[in-house]
Design a protein that fits this description.
This protein is an alpha/beta fold. The chain folds into 2 domains: 197 residues, P-loop containing nucleotide triphosphate hydrolases (Rossmann fold, 3-Layer(aba) Sandwich); 101 residues, Orthogonal Bundle (Helicase, Ruva Protein, domain 3). The protein contains 14 helices and 13 strands. Helix 10 crosses helix 11. The radius of gyration is 21 Å and the shape is globular. It starts with a helix and ends with a helix. The relative contact order is 0.15.
Length: 333
């Protein structure tokens, strides 16, 4: 839908006014998190565009700390679920409990009934538990007995998985991973950042606590504005070209990638790339999306939506390399 210059200017003013809470959140998180700006930014994108986030990285990179701190900075309910091989679906969503004195059943709601769910080491739980959580993520409701219960708004699942330990893990199937809007690969801090982390955690100073500086109402208002961010038809076509290049690389002068891709991004990839680009533009206090926004967030949206063949693995070709080649080949408007 076309928008006039006046509409975009008015929306820009609204975004400037309503995005003040973002800097307050960033300020609070900087008290306890050193570096990892990309990860914090992506968590905010997930929050603003109503999408769940999967974080992958070796232990000790502040994944859990970042998620917990974000929940503390927003005045909202927080639940942490530590996934283990013996976890049951009822431990996540809740169950019916029999009250002997009253001779009736009552519902005991599980930890999934919160605004922020930290699903720690999601790949440690069996498929039944994963699917119970992923159904809640998709439907935004949970059925216990004969009754369906709506989950609170905002509802955001932030899951972590450890890529190095394979013993006793249950890798998420592709269809379930696709439910996550973004998949982040969390890297090591720089030397200067790690020095700061050492001083912060081994010095005599007490770590500052994260205070709530934003309300769920502000988050929901910001989400409405994110949806209104303008995407020009040329940028829309650019997003479609990127996603279609993951399915038919030969049509974009990328025939060399054909043997390495077993399947490309689904329509959910296109939807989430638009929404994430809008949220990224919102964080830049802009009322319209530019191709640079798409390129900045593209890897995190597509990383878990492209299947690689055994040939790609044999030649040590990573999914990030495939995405980089696609971004280099597709014409930027």
């Amino acid at each position: 839908m076309m928008q006039s210059a006046d509409d975009i200017r008015l929306l820009n003013e609204k975004i400037n006014d309503s995005s003040v809470f973002i800097s307050r959140i960033n300020q609070e998180l900087s008290k306890v998190i050193v570096g990892q700006h990309g990860m914090v930014e992506r968590l905010l994108i997930g929050l603003l565009s109503n999408g769940h986030v999967l974080l992958e990285g070796v232990p000790g990179l502040a994944k859990t700390l970042s998620i917990k701190s974000l929940a503390q900075a927003v005045h909202a309910q927080f639940s942490r679920i530590q996934f283990t091989p013996d976890l049951l679906p009822a431990d996540v969503i809740g169950t019916m409990i029999y009250n002997q004195s009253k001779n009736e059943f009552y519902v005991r709601k599980g930890p999934v009934f919160a605004n922020f769910i930290l699903a720690d080491e999601i790949n440690r739980a069996p498929a039944k538990v994963q699917s119970a959580l992923l159904e809640a993520m998709q439907e935004r409701q949970v059925t216990i007995g004969d009754t369906s219960y709506a989950l609170p708004e905002p509802f955001l699942v932030l899951a972590t998985q450890n890529p190095i330990e394979q013993e006793g893990t249950y890798p998420l199937p592709e269809a379930q991973v696709d439910r996550f809007m973004l998949k982040l690969v969390v890297g090591y801090p720089s030397k200067a950042e790690e020095q700061q982390i050492i001083r912060q955690n081994t010095g005599g100073l007490t770590l500052q606590a994260v205070k709530p500086v934003a309300s769920t109402h502000e988050i929901l208002q910001a989400r409405d504005l994110v949806r209104q961010v303008y995407v020009d038809e040329k940028v829309e076509n650019y997003i479609l070209d990127i996603v279609f290049a993951t399915r038919f690389p030969e049509k974009y002068a990328l025939a060399k990638l054909k043997p390495f891709i077993s399947f490309g991004g689904s329509p959910r990839a296109s939807i989430n790339l638009v929404l994430a680009s809008k949220a990224y533009a919102f964080l830049q206090k802009r009322a319209y999306v530019v191709p640079e926004d798409v390129r900045a967030i593209c890897s995190d949206v597509l990383r878990h939506r492209i299947g690689l063949t055994y040939e790609a693995e044999a030649e040590s070709i990573s999914v990030d390399q495939v995405i980089s080649d696609i971004l280099s080949a597709v014409n930027v408007p």
